[in-house]
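Need tokens for this chain, all 171 residues.
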Amino acid sequence: MIWGLSYSIGSTTHWVLRYDDGKHPDRQSVAHGRRSITARGQEVLSHAEEQLMSALALSVILSLVSAVAYAGGAIVQEHVAVSAPGEQYAPLRRPTWWAAVALNGLGGLLHVVALAYGPLSLVQPLGALTIVFALPMAALFVGRRAGATAWRGAIMATVGLAAMLALVRSS
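Here are the structure tokens for all 171 residues:
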């Protein structure tokens, strides 16, 4: 968990950032300092704040790539399963099935790595974008067109996710 506190005195902002993974007390870290506000009103970021922002950006990118990998794996697995409907265990004999399993594994691995750089409250909701990414990917790669209801659902999921992340960010 990452939390911070900042307060301003004159043209200087004082800040404290604390990182605590909740599991290992020896891995807690605290950074503190102050930063000045330039004549143009722009704040100068400290090194710790830049590192925190870089870690959060990396966790977002990893989460999004993870969602794309999960969506790709699901689409390929569905396509392989539909192409051999009557044969039992037929998908297991096809290399594309195992490529889809590898994509799902990659998605899981990227999700875990994203959790190393960002909080669960950010990374986990971004995983829900798998459903949203699957719609255009299925249309592009498999030729399956999504109906208006599916697109409305994807839009509502995206809006809900944005609202939830905004609430989490403000708390």
